[in-house]
Amino acid sequence: MKATLGTAVLGLSALLGTTAFAQDNTLTINSFGGAYEEAHRACVITPFEAATGAKVNVVTAYSADAFAQLRAQKAAPQFDVIHFSGGQEIVAAAEGLLAPIDKASLSNAADLYDFAKADLANGQGPAYSIAAIGLVFNTEAVPAAPTKWTDLLNPEYGEHLVLTDISNGYGMLSFLMLNQVEGGDLSNIQPGLDAVGKLLDAGAVVVSTSPEIQQEFAQNDAWIAPYASDYAFTLRKAGLPSGFVQGEEGTPASYITANLVAGRPNNELALKFIDLEISAEAQKCFAEALRYSPTNAKTELSPEVAADVAYGEAGVAGLIRFDPATIEAHRTAWVEEWNKAIAR
C-alpha cells in the first residue's frame, strides 16, 4: 500500500500544482469507521493533507446518521464533503442540501464510468467505489462454484446456505436480486418472499450481521451466502477458503458517493478532495485494502484483486442499482413482510 500512497501523493501534487486556497484550509467530512475509515485515511485523507497542507476533520458517521446531521444543519452546514453508501445523495440533492458539480472542476471525472457521474449537475456526487453484491462461497466445500443467482435454489446447498436479514443493506440488495430472478420487481416482492420461504424450508439460516456470516462459515459448515465482494476477502483474511462471483443475471451495487455540501465557503478545496477520491490511484488503494470495485476506468488492479471485484468494462456492465428512493419508501413495509416470511 505504501507504493500506492506515494503515487497518490505525487498524483495529487501534480493535480493541485501551485494553487493557493484563500479560504479556510480545513475540510470536515464523514467516514464510516473501522476498517473503512482506516483505508479512507490511508488512500485519500493522509495523501490529501500531505499534498495540500490542509487539515481534514473526520466525523465518524454512517450514511443514515450523516444524512440526519446534514438535514439538521441545513441552515448552517458543518460538512464540506459528505459520503453516502445508501443512496441518500438522491434525496439530499432534491432537498437542496448538496451543490451541483461541474464535471470540468474534476480532472478525473472524464475517466469515470458513465454511471458514476450521471447526476453531477443535479447535485449527486460521483461514485468513487462500489460494493458489488454477488455470491460468496466456500471454495473447498461447494460441489461446484456457483455462477448465477438461481444457483441459490440448488437443493444441494440446503442447510449450507446463509441469508442476511434485509435490515442489513447488503441483505436488502441480495433479497431484491433474488426477487428479480424469481420474476418480481420493486412493485412486487412476493416472488422473493416465496423463494426465501422455500430456502428456509430446505434448511437455510438467516443472520443479521457480517460477523454472523463469518461464524457460519467458520463453525457451521456454510457453503454459500449472497453478500458483498469485500466480505469474501474478509473471510479469506480470517483463514477461511472463500471466493466471490458475480451472478450471470446481474450484480446489485451499493454506490459509495462523495458529495459537495451546499452553502459552504471552501468548495474549491472540497472539490480537490473529491477529485482525489475518484482518481485511479485512490481507487486502486481502496480495492487493495477493502476489495471495493473501482469506478475509474483507468484503475489497474492485479489479477488477485481483480478477481474479488467488479472490474473493467465487462465487470461493471452487469451492475444493477435498485432505486434507493423506492427502497427507502417501502423499507418499513418490506421488513414487516420479510419478518412474517422468516417467522418459522
UniProtKB/TrEMBL annotation:
Pfam families: SBP_bac_8 (PF13416). The keyword Ion transport does not apply. Residues 1-22 form the signal peptide. Keywords: Periplasm, Signal. The keyword Cell inner membrane does not apply. This is Polyamine ABC transporter substrate-binding protein. It comes from Devosia neptuniae.
